[in-house]
Design a protein that fits this description.
Elements lengths: L2 H74 L4 H4 L7 H13 L2 E7 L5 E11 L12 E12 L1 E3 L49 E5 L4 E4 L10 H4 E6 L1
Antiparallel strand pairs: 1-2, 2-3, 3-7, 4-5, 5-6
Helix pairs in contact: 1-3
Amino acid sequence: MTRAASRRRTGDAGQAFPLYIVAVAGLLLLAFAFFAVGQAAATRNSAQTAADAAALAAGQKYRDQLSTELLDAIRTGAPWKDLLGGRGVPGAEACANAQRFAGRNDADATCTAGSYPTSFAVEADTRKAVGRSVIPGTENTHASARARAVVEPRCTPGPEPEPTPTPAPGEGDGPGQGDGDDQGDGGDQGDGGDPPTNNPPAGPPTVNLTCQDGKEWTVDPADPRDLPEAADLFSVRLAE
């Protein structure tokens, strides 16, 4: 090999070395950029998980409250149809439950109760920032996500129960009450007051419910057994 050829090869290698450095630096920068994007995506997913969990927690709490209030109203004879329709319970306790669940997922949440059908809109912000990366400002950037849960009634009032027939006057009188011959002269009957009655006061009526899955429920205020669960009466789902 001539001296000129050897000098030319050495010069080519020297010129290519800076290109290698630039290429390697570019690949490293690209790798760090992808890492930063991954950090941001992970933080964003964490925020969405917190928002979804918080919204569902609010809806489930509200569903439990509705179910309890509904069954109590049926037992006591209070108005209950609005409760069966998913209305009539304040949303403050449900939103407080949403904030607790957001905290369990390392996020802070704001919760707003919506109108019928009752819904809970939640916005969650992660407590941890994305972290340092090659992208400026990510060390102070927090992810935010939104979710909304809807509480919907699953049952409607069923057919009215058959009324209990009222005994006619004189029916069911015991022996010795027909002609009053054995009642004496009335000296012990007082001054004409109303005769005592043994009929107890009528309680709240039985309520029939028809639910979406074809299940029929009969809620007897006098019998607390075999009552529907909250999930039988109301559904909770995430909405767009």
